[in-house]
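Dear colleague,

Following up on Tuesday's group meeting, I ran the structure prediction for the two-component complex that the binding team flagged. I've pasted the input sequences exactly as they went in, so you can double-check that nothing got truncated or mislabelled along the way. The C-alpha coordinates for the whole assembly follow below. Feel free to forward this to whoever is handling the docking comparison.

Inputs:
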Amino acid sequence: DAGVTQSPTHLIKTRGQQVTLRCSPKSGHDTVSWYQQALGQGPQFIFQYYEEEERQRGNFPDRFSGHQFPNYSSELNVNALLLGDSALYLCASSLQGPEGYTFGSGTRLTVV
Amino acid sequence: EDQVTQSPEALRLQEGESSSLNCSYTVSGLRGLFWYRQDPGKGPEFLFTLYSAGEEKEKERLKATLTKKESFLHITAPKPEDSATYLCAVNAGNNRKLIWGLGTSLAVNP
Protein backbone atom coordinates (compact mmCIF):
# COMPACT_ATOMS: atom_id res chain seq x y z
CA ASP A 1 0.00 0.00 0.00
CA ALA A 2 1.73 3.14 -1.22
CA GLY A 3 1.90 5.98 1.24
CA VAL A 4 2.12 9.63 0.28
CA THR A 5 4.44 10.28 -2.64
CA GLN A 6 6.06 13.64 -3.25
CA SER A 7 8.15 14.82 -6.16
CA PRO A 8 10.77 15.98 -6.66
CA THR A 9 12.73 15.12 -3.52
CA HIS A 10 15.17 18.00 -3.94
CA LEU A 11 15.04 21.19 -5.95
CA ILE A 12 17.26 24.23 -6.37
CA LYS A 13 15.75 27.41 -7.80
CA THR A 14 16.85 30.99 -8.30
CA ARG A 15 15.17 33.98 -6.67
CA GLY A 16 12.21 35.19 -8.72
CA GLN A 17 11.58 31.83 -10.37
CA GLN A 18 8.46 29.73 -10.04
CA VAL A 19 8.24 26.17 -8.74
CA THR A 20 5.65 23.37 -8.78
CA LEU A 21 5.70 20.57 -6.24
CA ARG A 22 3.58 17.45 -6.59
CA CYS A 23 1.88 15.07 -4.19
CA SER A 24 0.02 11.79 -4.57
CA PRO A 25 -2.02 10.94 -1.48
CA LYS A 26 -2.21 7.62 0.29
CA SER A 27 -4.66 5.25 -1.33
CA GLY A 28 -8.16 5.89 0.00
CA HIS A 29 -7.41 9.40 1.26
CA ASP A 30 -9.31 12.34 -0.21
CA THR A 31 -7.86 15.35 1.60
CA VAL A 32 -4.44 16.88 0.99
CA SER A 33 -2.70 19.43 3.17
CA TRP A 34 0.56 21.25 2.51
CA TYR A 35 3.01 22.36 5.17
CA GLN A 36 6.26 24.34 5.10
CA GLN A 37 8.95 23.32 7.57
CA ALA A 38 12.00 25.50 8.04
CA LEU A 39 15.10 23.97 9.60
CA GLY A 40 14.63 23.41 13.33
CA GLN A 41 10.99 24.51 13.25
CA GLY A 42 7.65 22.76 13.39
CA PRO A 43 5.60 22.50 10.19
CA GLN A 44 3.57 25.59 9.24
CA PHE A 45 0.18 25.06 7.59
CA ILE A 46 -0.08 26.42 4.04
CA PHE A 47 -3.48 25.15 2.89
CA GLN A 48 -5.76 22.14 2.64
CA TYR A 49 -7.64 20.79 -0.38
CA TYR A 50 -10.76 18.66 -0.44
CA GLU A 51 -13.00 17.91 -3.43
CA GLU A 52 -10.69 20.01 -5.60
CA GLU A 53 -11.28 23.14 -3.53
CA GLU A 54 -9.14 25.01 -1.04
CA ARG A 55 -10.89 24.51 2.31
CA GLN A 56 -8.59 26.42 4.60
CA ARG A 57 -5.51 28.54 4.23
CA GLY A 58 -2.73 29.48 6.60
CA ASN A 59 -0.84 32.77 6.81
CA PHE A 60 0.95 32.52 3.50
CA PRO A 61 0.95 35.11 0.71
CA ASP A 62 -0.87 34.68 -2.58
CA ARG A 63 2.43 33.65 -4.16
CA PHE A 64 1.57 30.25 -2.75
CA SER A 65 -1.22 28.54 -4.65
CA GLY A 66 -2.40 25.01 -5.12
CA HIS A 67 -4.61 22.64 -6.96
CA GLN A 68 -6.23 19.27 -6.37
CA PHE A 69 -7.10 16.99 -9.25
CA PRO A 70 -10.03 14.56 -9.57
CA ASN A 71 -7.74 11.67 -8.59
CA TYR A 72 -7.00 13.55 -5.31
CA SER A 73 -3.39 14.31 -6.22
CA SER A 74 -2.26 17.85 -5.61
CA GLU A 75 0.20 20.50 -6.66
CA LEU A 76 1.75 23.36 -4.73
CA ASN A 77 2.91 26.34 -6.80
CA VAL A 78 5.12 29.11 -5.51
CA ASN A 79 5.72 32.20 -7.65
CA ALA A 80 8.41 34.88 -7.38
CA LEU A 81 10.58 32.76 -5.09
CA LEU A 82 12.36 34.42 -2.19
CA LEU A 83 15.38 33.17 -0.28
CA GLY A 84 13.08 32.72 2.73
CA ASP A 85 11.03 30.15 0.82
CA SER A 86 13.86 27.67 1.26
CA ALA A 87 12.40 24.86 3.38
CA LEU A 88 11.12 21.30 3.45
CA TYR A 89 7.65 21.21 1.90
CA LEU A 90 5.49 18.45 3.29
CA CYS A 91 2.32 16.99 1.86
CA ALA A 92 -0.06 15.14 4.17
CA SER A 93 -3.14 13.18 3.20
CA SER A 94 -6.10 12.15 5.30
CA LEU A 95 -9.81 11.46 5.18
CA GLN A 96 -11.65 14.78 5.58
CA GLY A 97 -9.61 16.25 8.40
CA PRO A 98 -6.37 16.13 10.35
CA GLU A 99 -7.01 12.85 12.11
CA GLY A 100 -4.67 10.20 10.87
CA TYR A 101 -2.48 12.46 8.73
CA THR A 102 0.03 10.52 6.66
CA PHE A 103 3.00 12.58 5.57
CA GLY A 104 5.21 12.22 2.54
CA SER A 105 8.98 12.48 2.80
CA GLY A 106 8.86 16.04 1.58
CA THR A 107 10.49 18.17 -1.09
CA ARG A 108 13.59 20.06 -0.04
CA LEU A 109 13.49 23.43 -1.84
CA THR A 110 16.57 25.61 -1.86
CA VAL A 111 16.31 29.13 -3.28
CA VAL A 112 19.63 30.75 -4.21
CA GLU B 1 -4.22 32.42 20.27
CA ASP B 2 -3.78 28.66 20.04
CA GLN B 3 -0.29 27.64 21.07
CA VAL B 4 1.78 24.48 21.55
CA THR B 5 5.03 24.44 23.53
CA GLN B 6 7.37 21.48 23.78
CA SER B 7 10.12 20.90 26.31
CA PRO B 8 12.94 20.27 26.52
CA GLU B 9 14.23 21.48 23.16
CA ALA B 10 16.88 18.78 23.20
CA LEU B 11 17.49 15.70 25.32
CA ARG B 12 20.42 13.33 25.41
CA LEU B 13 19.95 9.95 27.11
CA GLN B 14 22.03 6.85 27.66
CA GLU B 15 20.59 3.66 26.27
CA GLY B 16 18.14 2.29 28.84
CA GLU B 17 17.69 5.63 30.63
CA SER B 18 13.94 6.35 30.71
CA SER B 19 12.60 9.90 30.45
CA SER B 20 9.60 12.00 29.41
CA LEU B 21 8.96 14.70 26.85
CA ASN B 22 6.41 17.42 27.53
CA CYS B 23 3.88 19.13 25.27
CA SER B 24 1.79 21.89 26.81
CA TYR B 25 -1.03 23.49 24.87
CA THR B 26 -3.34 26.47 25.04
CA VAL B 27 -6.28 25.99 22.70
CA SER B 28 -10.03 26.46 22.63
CA GLY B 29 -11.91 23.24 22.16
CA LEU B 30 -9.29 20.52 21.80
CA ARG B 31 -10.32 17.97 19.19
CA GLY B 32 -7.15 15.92 19.23
CA LEU B 33 -3.48 15.92 20.22
CA PHE B 34 -1.01 14.15 17.97
CA TRP B 35 2.52 12.88 18.47
CA TYR B 36 4.82 12.38 15.52
CA ARG B 37 8.40 11.23 15.13
CA GLN B 38 10.59 12.90 12.50
CA ASP B 39 13.96 11.70 11.26
CA PRO B 40 16.32 14.22 9.58
CA GLY B 41 15.19 15.15 6.07
CA LYS B 42 12.05 12.99 6.33
CA GLY B 43 8.37 13.69 6.81
CA PRO B 44 6.77 13.19 10.25
CA GLU B 45 5.75 9.64 11.12
CA PHE B 46 2.50 9.28 13.03
CA LEU B 47 2.75 7.83 16.54
CA PHE B 48 -0.40 8.58 18.57
CA THR B 49 -3.65 10.53 18.71
CA LEU B 50 -5.16 11.44 22.08
CA TYR B 51 -8.64 12.93 22.34
CA SER B 52 -9.55 13.43 25.99
CA ALA B 53 -7.92 14.00 29.37
CA GLY B 54 -6.94 10.77 31.05
CA GLU B 55 -6.40 8.91 27.80
CA GLU B 56 -3.21 6.87 27.40
CA LYS B 57 -1.74 5.03 24.43
CA GLU B 58 1.28 2.77 24.14
CA LYS B 59 3.48 1.53 21.33
CA GLU B 60 6.61 -0.48 22.06
CA ARG B 61 8.81 1.71 24.32
CA LEU B 62 6.58 4.79 23.96
CA LYS B 63 3.58 5.80 26.06
CA ALA B 64 1.57 8.99 25.55
CA THR B 65 -0.68 10.54 28.17
CA LEU B 66 -3.00 13.55 28.11
CA THR B 67 -4.27 16.01 30.70
CA LYS B 68 -6.35 19.15 30.21
CA LYS B 69 -3.22 21.27 29.75
CA GLU B 70 -0.44 19.00 28.58
CA SER B 71 0.67 15.70 27.17
CA PHE B 72 3.67 13.57 28.02
CA LEU B 73 5.54 11.14 25.83
CA HIS B 74 7.24 8.63 28.10
CA ILE B 75 10.16 6.69 26.68
CA THR B 76 11.03 3.53 28.58
CA ALA B 77 14.49 1.98 28.23
CA PRO B 78 15.25 3.85 24.98
CA LYS B 79 17.51 2.45 22.28
CA PRO B 80 19.76 4.38 19.85
CA GLU B 81 17.17 3.86 17.09
CA ASP B 82 14.73 5.99 19.10
CA SER B 83 16.91 9.02 18.31
CA ALA B 84 14.77 11.50 16.37
CA THR B 85 12.81 14.72 16.76
CA TYR B 86 9.46 14.19 18.45
CA LEU B 87 6.76 16.63 17.40
CA CYS B 88 3.48 17.41 19.12
CA ALA B 89 0.51 18.96 17.32
CA VAL B 90 -3.06 19.83 18.22
CA ASN B 91 -6.29 20.27 16.33
CA ALA B 92 -8.84 22.54 17.94
CA GLY B 93 -12.20 24.16 17.34
CA ASN B 94 -13.39 24.28 13.77
CA ASN B 95 -9.86 24.37 12.45
CA ARG B 96 -8.83 21.87 9.84
CA LYS B 97 -5.12 22.45 10.37
CA LEU B 98 -2.71 21.13 12.96
CA ILE B 99 -0.85 23.56 15.22
CA TRP B 100 2.66 22.30 15.88
CA GLY B 101 5.24 22.65 18.59
CA LEU B 102 8.92 23.10 17.70
CA GLY B 103 9.76 19.55 18.72
CA THR B 104 12.16 17.82 21.09
CA SER B 105 15.36 16.51 19.58
CA LEU B 106 16.18 13.22 21.30
CA ALA B 107 19.59 11.56 21.10
CA VAL B 108 20.12 8.13 22.68
CA ASN B 109 23.72 7.10 23.13
CA PRO B 110 24.68 3.41 23.09
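Residues 16 and 66 of chain A are 18 Å apart (CA to CA).

Cheers,
M.
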